[in-house]
Design brief:
This protein has 1191 residues and is α+β, with helices and mostly antiparallel strands. It has 3 domains: 646 residues, no CATH class; 239 residues, Rossmann fold; 123 residues, Severin. Helix content is 20%, strand content 17%. The protein is built from 25 helices and 42 strands. The strands form 10 sheets. Strands 2, 11, 13, 19, 28, 30, 31, 33 and 34 form a 9-stranded mixed beta sheet that branches. Strands 6, 20, 21, 22, 23, 24, 25, 26 and 27 form a 9-stranded mixed beta sheet that branches. Strands 8-29-32-12-10 form a 5-stranded antiparallel beta sheet, covered by helices on one side. A hairpin with a 2-residue loop joins strand 30 and strand 31. The protein is globular and about 80 Å long. The chain starts with 6 loop residues before the first strand and ends with a helix. 57% of the residues are buried.
Length: 1191
């Protein structure tokens, strides 16, 4: 167990519970902090008030003492109900030690931390490191010089199976005050004190500790309508291990009995009337008294946005005291040989004292508040981009002056060298003057007349913009498939960011499959002594013995071991080490990064076996997939597996080695669920493999004659949680209907008559908080819940999805699933299961995102639990999950020409290794508005706005989210046009970098998540929103704007060669019916599905050679596969489709569309440039944008 940071108080949306509770911990988990409130007793784990609603995100660099003023925040309607303060009991927690970033609150009350009993105290010796990797490592070790005590590095081969060319849940406090901004995504807020709370990771009786902090900035997508507090307690029976086992033991037969305050920003456009208030406070809301220590912070347009959504999480505030930080800083020093302290290393009790923190030495109680963004600052011009490293900060300049080193010294790479200030001009000249202030306008700024130039879609996929860095830094930069920023040119100030009217944020795909990954094993992982940044290609070496951190600018010593390069087997070249030559690396972590021994991989399957499930036929597909992939499940010799089935009762299966066949145990008392034989329900996969196979072969037929129509999903999940708590792992839930019995039962909330409504779309949020609270308990015990929903009717996915969102799980949805009647969905399930069961997985993971001083993170999006300001808790991490982060500029960046972002993912591999995957991204800083637009990444901007709009849809309304998306286009183009000269009012001009912005936003408005006026099932809409929050950018863009190709005339002229295969490259087509012809065949790539539309008059040779049928009439309605025909056109078509499938983890299903096919409607709804009854065409949308700009 560990002690976690204090978390900010959360609020319930309307109907989620009574007043805000206090948190508590069992005796021994937390020490009582002086001057804290008295303990309160929580009599039940699943009380509605057990978890508060959501976090506050820190808005500025504020240090204050405990205050008595409490925040009277508004209630909000949320989509996924924001994650609560929850320490989670994680054994895998990065460093709390040095966490005093600009957004932290310091309290002068020291909190003692209890030590973790099973913490490893041994360290990896250099003699072990010199022998290569551990025996159970899944990569090759590089031999080293005999007897040398140096680390090794390897580049492990990755199994073939896909070239992934790419990269949870949001929480925040509502704004207080009247919003008067015209920008669609901007607001202002006053920081006010509010309560913080802390909760123990587990246990039912807890004690309280509260402390005061500052409220977050609230952005435009965070409108919070006032809601009423409703008592809504969900009580479940406690667990009594002494009670008798109410089960039926069956040995042989497999049968079972029947923001803020005011004032428009100085940078806002005044040419149009104000947009509707998107962050307003009702007049009846009580006023808030501002603490005298807190400074007023102006609205941070996009950069200061904090969304108010259950599935996006702003960074909670720290509650650690100054004394604690000092002690924890010493703890961190003991982990790094580069530290100069000689204090003994204490037993660390949480991963926040292992992985890292903020800037403990550069921020103190005397830190001054952030300058108001509304005040335009006089700033120095940005340094040339070639000047890679800023001068030492004032705190360091008088310490140890760097020894001047000539650039020609072969021992120092120019891109890592720190240059004296006098050499800046010479360096800039030698690097070719890479400033954006070119005499010739860059292509990304070329004006595009959107209403005149209709063919703006490129012929191939849109590449990520390349940051304007010198060639050395550009080669070393992180791949945009893993780490991407919405702006590749970072504005110097928040005021400049406000002027651009574009959001600043990151899109991450941190655990994606890589074909080549440097894996480093070393007894010392070199990190900054101050901010705990991992050494990376963008640090600067002052000399061979000292390096300067590129995030906080502290000068650190180079450890002796780091002087040796395992690749070249040379000494004295630290700048050539693999850590400094690769922006993406993975470290084998020592026992210092463990709080308990690595647990085995544990997989538990919870299966719906009601009549509805048996009729759907999914059990046959699931059991067959498990039998085929049982030996491929990630893990080692300790891997464990278990099964639970449920209908109106819950059935467990004893698979203990030594039994002649599996034993079913039935628990019928679902109101007081318990484990009949806890020690025999999760078994070793290898020891009990034959029994497991027997069960999988029998399961599809065991419930064939069942008449049970009820579903006790809640009790089954409660049992699964009890079973998985000791070790953690992954729970896979298969559900086919609305839960109807026991805890967590749900009722239908969908009105089919409102599916096409153009007005209010209701019930986007959960109906109960049972699933959220259960998920948080699972997260605390390092257990993720993955949901497979295979339903033919409404199943309230908005409520069920919470079990995956808050536990870092994933969601799979198969509407109208039936094994026989819907073969396309059955095939998709089969392919998804193959990937799901065999893909890489990480357990007990935490992820921290660091950035250059002056930048701050305030909101996260994805499936996770937010543990502290920049720390995400991921019970499981998988290579198909993406995340998004919103950022703001708290301090001027005029003293630096580069900023860096670093994400560190600490996880346990399925083989039991503790690993750290690190990605580092470097971007230039610019001082002009045109440079900001030149570096805009339009796809990243759209994906971040999609995440923000999902939050707004639930916290406010779908109509507000749609309006905000439109206003985002209006504001950004109006701001750009206001800077350009000689523009006619009749023209709608965009920079080349943003020419696709209106098209992508229109596509987003027509996507299932946000469309109106078109019949859309509520579960379909919610699932689309879930995908928006958890998909990597490259997959999300295919959902938003599919790719359309004409494939009946493929040739060998425009081709590429991939693995001895010739792949045609047809040009992209506009998503418009005008591009379709009855004589052609068109393939639409929507990400998860391929539509192959065949025209009525399509060439008969194509139909015969590619589809395998003599004519158009003979092509079947439900064709999902292309036959292998020995013909050039068939080989080209199959090669192209296979190439598209290989570019993503989940294999899309192919669906052939004819004019009379019911799926034709779905195909034509993706032609987003055409007009529909309820939506503009693309040209009409442009005219509407132009009209709003000219208002």
């Amino acid at each position: 167990c560990f002690s976690g940071p204090m978390q900010s108080q959360m609020q319930f949306p309307s109907g989620y519970g009574s007043h805000l509770p206090n948190y508590s911990a069992p005796s021994g988990h937390y020490s009582q902090v002086p001057n804290k409130a008295a303990a309160s007793h929580l009599d039940n784990q699943y009380r509605a008030s057990y978890y508060p609603g959501y976090y506050s995100a820190p808005a500025q660099n504020v240090m204050t003492s405990v205050g008595s003023n409490m925040l009277n925040a508004q209630e909000s309607q949320q989509l996924y109900n924001n994650t609560p303060p929850h320490s989670g009991g994680s054994s895998d927690r990065p460093v709390q030690g040095a966490v005093s970033s600009a957004s932290y609150l310091h309290v002068s009350a020291q909190q003692s931390y209890s030590a973790f009993d099973n913490h490893y105290s041994t360290s990896v010796s250099s003699s072990v490191a010199s022998q290569g990797f551990p025996l159970n490592s899944d990569h090759y070790a590089m031999p080293v010089v005999s007897g040398a005590m140096y680390p090794n590095v390897s580049y492990p081969p990755v199994a073939a199976g896909g070239v992934y060319g790419q990269t949870f849940t949001s929480q925040s406090l509502p704004a207080v005050g009247q919003f008067k901004e015209t920008n669609a995504f901007s607001s202002q807020s006053t920081s006010v004190p509010h309560s913080l709370q802390q909760r123990a990771p587990m246990g039912y009786n807890t004690t309280l500790s509260t402390v005061s902090s500052a409220q977050s900035v609230q952005d435009n997508l965070s409108r919070n309508p006032t809601g009423s507090k409703v008592n809504n307690q969900i009580n479940t029976g406690g667990i009594d291990s002494s009670q008798p086992v109410h089960s039926v033991s069956q040995n042989v037969p497999f049968t079972k009995p029947g923001a803020g305050t005011s004032a428009s920003s100085a940078v806002m456009s005044s040419v149009r009337s104000p947009a509707p208030s998107l962050s307003s406070k009702p007049p009846s809301s009580p006023s808030v008294t501002q603490s005298p220590e807190l400074a007023l912070q102006e609205g941070m347009q996009y950069g200061g946005y904090v969304n108010n959504q259950a599935s996006s999480a702003p960074a909670p505030l720290s509650s650690s005291s100054d004394d604690e930080e000092e002690d924890e800083e010493d703890e961190e020093a003991a982990l790094d040989s580069s530290s100069t302290t000689s204090s003994a290393s204490p037993v660390l009790n949480n991963y926040d004292a292992l992985e890292g923190g903020g800037y403990p030495e550069t921020h103190s109680v005397t830190s001054s508040p952030v300058p108001s963004p509304s005040v335009l600052q006089t700033s120095k011009a940005s340094k040339p981009f070639g000047y890679g490293y800023p001068a030492l900060q004032p705190g360091y300049q008088n310490a140890t002056p760097p020894t001047p080193v000539q650039p020609s010294n072969p021992g120092h790479h120019p891109s890592f060298q720190h240059y004296p200030q006098a050499c800046v001009n010479q360096l800039s000249s030698s690097l070719g003057g890479l400033s954006l202030q070119h005499s010739q306008q860059p292509e990304s700024l070329r004006p595009v007349n959107l209403t005149h130039d209709r063919n703006i879609l490129p012929v191939s996929s849109v590449p990520a913009p390349v940051p304007n860095l010198n060639s050395d830094l550009r080669k070393l930069n992180c791949s945009p498939d893993s780490f991407r920023c919405t702006l590749t040119n970072i504005p110097q100030t928040q005021a400049l960011l406000n002027k651009a009217k574009l959001p600043l944020g990151l899109l991450l795909h941190p655990f994606r499959d890589l074909t080549q990954l440097p894996v480093i094993t070393s007894s010392t992982i070199v990190r900054c002594r101050s901010c705990r940044t991992y050494i990376n290609p963008f640090v600067s070496f002052i000399d061979q013995r000292r390096w300067k951190c590129n995030l906080c600018y502290r000068v650190n010593d180079v450890p002796e071991e780091f002087m040796y390069n395992p690749l070249t087997r040379s000494y004295g070249e630290p700048h050539k080490r693999p850590e400094v030559q690769n922006s993406t690396v993975e470290f084998i972590a020592s026992s210092d990064y463990m709080l308990r021994p690595p647990q085995p991989a544990v997989y538990l399957f919870v299966l719906d076996v009601s009549h509805n499930a048996v009729e759907a036929g999914y059990l046959t597909i699931l059991c067959q997939s498990l039998l085929e992939n049982l030996d491929k499940l990630p893990g080692d010799s300790r891997t464990r597996i278990g099964f639970i089935t449920f209908d109106s009762t819950v059935q467990f299966y004893n698979l203990q080695e030594g039994l002649s066949q599996p034993q079913m145990l039935i628990v019928s008392d679902i109101d007081d669920i318990f484990l009949p034989t806890p020690d025999s329900l999760l078994v070793n996969l290898h020891e009990s493999k034959e029994l497991i196979k027997d069960l999988l072969n029998a399961l599809p037929n065991m419930f064939t004659n069942t008449r049970e129509t009820h579903s006790a999903l809640g009790p089954a999940l409660q049992a699964a949680f009890k079973l998985m708590s000791p070790t953690g792992g992954r729970i896979s839930v298969f559900q086919t209907q609305l839960p109807s019995l026991g805890a967590g039962l749900l009722h239908s909330r969908e009105d089919p008559n409102q599916r096409s409504s153009t007005k209010v779309v209701q019930h986007l949020g959960p109906a109960t908080d049972f699933y959220k609270k259960l998920a948080l308990d699972c997260s605390g015990q390092q257990t993720a819940v993955d949901l497979f929903l295979l339903s033919s009717q409404y199943s309230d996915l908005a409520s069920l999805a919470c079990m995956s969102k808050y536990s870092a799980g994933c969601i799979y949805y198969y509407p109208s699933f039936h094994r026989s009647h819907n073969p396309a969905q059955a095939e998709k399930l089969q392919k998804d299961l193959k990937r799901y069961l065999t893909r890489k997985i990480g357990f007990e993971a935490v992820m921290r995102i660091r950035c250059t001083k002056g930048l701050s993170i305030h909101t996260f999006h994805g499936n996770f639990f937010v543990r502290s300001t920049d720390l995400l808790s991921l019970a499981n991490v998988n290579p198909d999950a993406g995340y998004a982060v919103q950022m703001s500029i708290e301090e001027s960046l005029t003293d630096t020409s580069l900023v860096c972002f670093q994400t560190a993912l600490l996880y346990t591999s399925s083989k039991g290794e503790r690993r750290i995957r690190v990605h580092t991204l470097c971007l230039p800083v610019v001082s002009s508005l045109s440079d900001v637009y030149a570096g805009a990444d339009v796809q990243a901007v759209v994906c971040l706005l999609a995440n923000m709009a999902v939050d707004r849809s639930v916290s406010s309304s779908l109509a507000d989210a749609r309006d905000a998306l439109v206003n985002a286009v209006v504001d950004s183009l109006a701001a750009y046009m206001s800077t350009a000269s000689n523009l006619q009012q009749s023209m709608l001009i965009a920079p080349n970098s943003l020419k696709l912005f209106p098209l992508y936003i229109l596509a987003l408005l027509k996507q299932k998540a946000f469309r109106t006026g078109t019949s859309t099932r509520l579960d379909d809409r919610v699932y689309a929103m879930c995908q928006m929050k958890s998909q990597p950018l490259v997959h999300l863009m295919k959902m938003i704007h599919p790719n359309l190709y004409r494939i009946d005339k493929l040739t060998d002229e425009s081709t590429i060669h991939v693995n001895d295969r010739v792949v045609p490259q047809p040009p992209l087509q506009k998503l418009s019916a005008e591009k379709l012809t009855r004589e052609g065949a068109f393939l639409m790539d929507c990400g998860s599905i391929f539509y192959l539309w065949i025209g009525k008059n399509c060439d008969s040779n194509f139909i015969k050679d590619v589809l395998g049928y003599p004519n158009y009439a003979s092509v079947p309605q439900k064709m999902t596969q292309l036959p292998e025909v020995d013909a050039p056109s068939s080989e080209r078509t199959r090669s192209f489709i296979s190439w598209l499938r290989d570019s993503r983890p989940l294999s899309p299903v192919l669906q052939v569309i004819k004019d009379e096919n019911p799926a034709k409607t779905d195909f034509f709804q993706h032609l987003i440039e055409d007009r529909t009854e309820a939506a503009f065409s693309y040209y009409e949308f442009l005219l509407n944008i132009q009209q709003q700009i000219c208002k």
